TrEMBL record:
InterPro entries: Adenyl_kin_sub (IPR006259), Adenylat/UMP-CMP_kin (IPR000850), Adenylat_kinase_CS (IPR033690), P-loop_NTPase (IPR027417). GO terms for cellular component: chloroplast. Belongs to the adenylate kinase family. Pfam families: ADK. The keyword ATP-binding applies. This is adenylate kinase. It comes from the Eukaryota. Its main location: plastid. SUPFAM superfamilies: P-loop containing nucleoside triphosphate hydrolases. Keywords: ATP-binding, Chloroplast, Kinase, Nucleotide-binding, Plastid, Transferase. It is found in: Plastid, Chloroplast. It catalyses: AMP + ATP = 2 ADP. It comes from Salvia splendens.
């Protein structure tokens, strides 16, 4: 794995957050002892159209709650979130982004957008992708660092989705001064994750994702044409989970004061309620701290 890049750094001291209630420890079978895999690097190929994904995601009002602009109450929120495949992380990122008006940054989306835009980092990444190689950590770290430093991220706050994936990536971001106020870890037992993934089916006509148990197709006609993605088999999902868990294990020690573990087996509304409660309390504390300094 490539080492983190070295350059002049700006250090900020992030506010630590300690939840009031005790949190269940991570089940041992979810945290293997293997060292972080080289797969912690971003692996993308040019046959993935970078124009299909945009990392600049504007927030829209969502029925049921009021949009909160974190910058209006003091310092903006700085959030990292991690979750295994099928943990519901994507849904929670969407809900968090919409309510708190945070800039949603996903490394894979960012990489594809930079390649499509022909930026300096994008050109460097494209060279490796054309050779079928992993994009080195230092290139991805620079992309993420520059996105975090942009004005909208600094003013509105940011939600870093599924990144960093290794200790070296986390250390590099820390050297640049990017430390989260909170690190949300969605916990789901492996057997449930496997069930969620293996039961997924794709409608090749509409592109809609179904689940044989949780969201079955509406008609027999749709059911007859559903297909299973090649990487949604039990064997392959277990390999992906092993890689994910080893990568997460490698970064947890660096964020031990900011970690909040959330039960991802709950309905998505309850999962968001837990996250929302923690973020609201954190935002209130940050606003109070700014107010006391102003006084």
């Amino acid at each position: 794995m490539a080492s983190s890049c070295s350059c002049n750094t700006v250090n900020f001291k992030a506010a630590s957050f300690h939840p009031n209630k005790p949190l269940a420890p991570t089940p041992s079978h979810l945290l293997p002892t293997s060292k972080p895999s080289q797969l912690a690097s971003i692996s993308l190929r040019l046959n993935q159209n970078p124009l299909q994904t945009t990392h600049f995601r504007k927030s829209k009002a969502v029925p049921g709650f009021q949009v909160v602009a974190s910058g209006q109450k003091g310092e903006p929120l700085r959030v990292m979130i991690s979750g295994a495949p099928a943990s519901g992380k994507g849904t929670q990122c969407e809900l968090i982004t919409k309510k708190y008006n945070l800039v949603h940054i996903a490394a894979g989306d960012l990489l594809r957008a930079e390649v499509a835009a022909g930026t300096e980092n994008g050109k460097r990444a494209k060279e490796f992708m054309e050779m079928g190689k992993l994009v080195p950590n230092e290139i991805v770290v620079m992309m993420v660092k520059e996105r975090l430093a942009q004005q909208d991220s600094q003013e509105n706050g940011w939600l870093l989705d599924g990144y960093p994936r290794s200790e070296s990536q986390a250390t590099a971001l820390k050297k640049f001064g990017f430390v989260p106020d909170i690190f949300i870890l969605l916990e789901v037992p492996e057997e449930i994750l496997v069930e969620r993934v293996v039961g997924r089916r794709l409608d090749p006509v509409t592109g809609k994702i179904y689940h044989l148990t949780y969201s079955p197709p509406e008609t027999e006609e749709i059911a007859a044409r559903l297909t299973q993605r090649f990487d949604d088999t039990e064997e392959k999902v277990k390999l992906r989970l092993l890689t994910h868990n080893s990568n997460v294990e490698s970064v947890l020690s660096l964020y031990e004061d900011q970690i909040v573990k959330v039960d991802g087996t709950l309905p998505k509304e309850e999962v968001f309620s837990e996250i929302d409660s923690v973020l609201t309390e954190l935002l209130t504390k940050k606003g109070a701290a700014v107010g006391s300094l102003a006084a």
